[in-house]
Specification:
This protein has about 120 residues and is an all-beta fold. Helices cover about 0% and strands about 50% of the residues. The protein has no helices and 13 strands. The strands form three sheets. Strands 2, 4, 5, 6, 9, 12 and 13 form a seven-stranded mixed sheet that branches. It is globular, with a radius of gyration of 13 Å.
């Protein structure tokens, strides 16, 4: 079975930083596209960042570009999301996912494996 375990969420003040981790088992993270999604209360889940397996390119939603950085450690089968300059509007449950659609203007998880989510709350 594929399992993705996200961690690292928490409560942080406006302008603060957090680093999310996602460890994978039953799946090798360099074998397919991987990425991060988030879902705020009352909103749809949105793709915010991904790594393309084809060439290692990274893509970001406009809402997080320049503030968030996605990375992966293939030796430890783990992906990360470094989040800097956090804003209250970044408050959401964050999910890691694998086997996603990953393009510069399109990040979707139609056929994805999903992690369980980790809560990020940014206070003003």
């Amino acid at each position: 079975d594929v399992q993705l375990q996200a961690s690292g969420g928490g409560l942080v003040q406006d302008g603060g930083s957090l680093r999310l981790s996602c460890s994978a088992s039953g799946f090798t993270i360099d074998s397919d596209n991987i990425g991060w999604f988030r879902q705020a209360p009352g909103k749809e889940r949105e793709g915010i960042s991904c790594i393309s397996v084809s060439d290692g390119s990274t893509y970001y939603a406009d809402s997080v570009k320049g503030r968030f950085t996605i990375s992966s450690d293939n030796a430890n089968n783990t992906m990360y999301l470094q989040m800097n300059s956090l804003k209250p509007e970044d408050t959401a449950v964050y999910y890691c996912a694998a086997r996603i659609l990953c393009y510069s203007d399109y990040i979707r998880g139609l056929f994805a494996f999903w992690g369980q989510g980790t809560q990020v709350t940014v206070s003003s």
